[in-house]
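User: tokens in, sequence out, please.
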């Protein structure tokens, strides 16, 4: 006899992480290439002496720090083991079988997975030809079964970002019992003043009585803690409360909490790094455009090359040049902005590929 597992999981593809290849430059997972700050490493080392104890399951101190930084009461926050886990918690907290979760496609690959696992139904709305969320089509796709909408801003993998008035107009069309989640994993790399700070926007909407907007943030990207797994949701208290209910106890570990607080202490230094990455993003995109590549305007720490059928060939070509990019076969390649010399290696590969 074999164990009976859920039959519907047979068709579920596993999440495919960016590859690490020894000796190659990894520009495949939107990580920050620079290593952790010494102050953060020291805080982790100091906290390591107490890992025989369970972590603070409520992340109390970190929650208070974030509440202070963001200007929201602590009951508006929920910590998670990476924001991807919060995506899962949000679907679990809003959906039962056959409820619908709406998102643009292509967008973050975890959205379909967490939706399927929760037994909910995914509704994918294609991006526009300009690789941007088609908010009109998304609004039109809402049904009485829609419980949640993910809006990834800037969007992974295209880097494109929505403006404040576009998001406001969209939210105005969403019934107020449907949760809109602004996933801001790449927020710190935004330099266009027309792109909102989702938390500030959410605060205004809450004040106006719209209690159906939540924001996801992560310490994995700009704060350089991808390996420690920590992110957070800023949400109306009723939503934050159910997020805490579906939280797997102790899943935000002690070292992650300490590292997040040390990173908040070093925020100025980390934001200087982000500005340098943005400058590199502008340089890389400019060079790619000059080489004849199509590269949508990006507000994240990566560029998107919609190479269509040539994506697999481009991926192989980059691997030959010892650069690992993220290929979505048949669609395009996403390339993380790394340190200047890593970007130079990628640009050399891009130059040697005839577009
Ligand atoms: N949202 C988006 C849009 C992402 O691209 C990612 C990471 N690839 C995440 C959420 C999850 O990040 P983490 O779980 O590391 O916080």
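Assistant: Sequence out:
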């Amino acid at each position: 006899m074999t164990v009976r597992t859920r039959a519907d999981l047979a068709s579920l593809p596993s999440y495919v992480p960016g590859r690490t290849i020894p000796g190659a430059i990894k520009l495949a997972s939107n990580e920050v290439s620079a290593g952790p700050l010494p102050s953060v490493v020291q805080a982790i080392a100091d906290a390591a002496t107490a890992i025989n104890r369970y972590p603070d399951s409520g992340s109390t101190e970190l929650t208070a720090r974030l509440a202070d930084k963001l200007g929201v009461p602590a009951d508006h926050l929920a910590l998670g083991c990476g924001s991807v886990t919060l995506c899962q918690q949000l679907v679990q907290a809003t959906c039962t079988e056959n409820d619908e979760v709406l998102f643009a496609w292509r967008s973050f690959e975890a959205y379909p997975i967490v939706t399927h696992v929760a037994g909910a139904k995914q509704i994918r709305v294609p991006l526009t030809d300009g690789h941007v969320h088609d908010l009109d089509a998304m609004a039109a796709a809402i049904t009485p079964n829609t419980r949640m909408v993910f809006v990834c801003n800037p969007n992974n993998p295209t880097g494109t970002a929505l403006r404040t008035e576009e998001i406001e107009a969209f939210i105005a069309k969403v019934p107020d019992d449907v949760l809109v989640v602004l996933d801001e994993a790449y927020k710190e790399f935004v330099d266009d003043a027309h792109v909102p700070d989702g938390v500030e926007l959410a605060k205004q909407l809450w004040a106006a009585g719209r209690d159906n907007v939540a924001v996801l943030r992560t310490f994995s990207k700009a704060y350089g803690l991808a390996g420690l797994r920590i992110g957070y949701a800023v949400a109306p208290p009723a939503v934050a409360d159910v997020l805490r209910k579906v939280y797997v106890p102790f899943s935000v570990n002690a070292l992650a909490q300490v590292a997040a607080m040390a990173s908040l202490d070093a925020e100025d230094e980390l934001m200087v790094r982000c500005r340098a990455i943005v400058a590199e993003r502008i340089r890389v995109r400019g060079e790619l455009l000059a080489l004849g590549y199509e590269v949508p305007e990006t507000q994240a720490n990566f560029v998107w090359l919609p190479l269509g059928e040539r994506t697999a060939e481009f991926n192989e070509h980059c691997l030959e040049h010892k650069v690992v990019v993220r290929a979505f076969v048949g669609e395009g390649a996403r390339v993380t902005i790394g340190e200047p010399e890593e970007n130079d290696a990628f640009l050399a590969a891009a130059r040697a590929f005839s577009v």
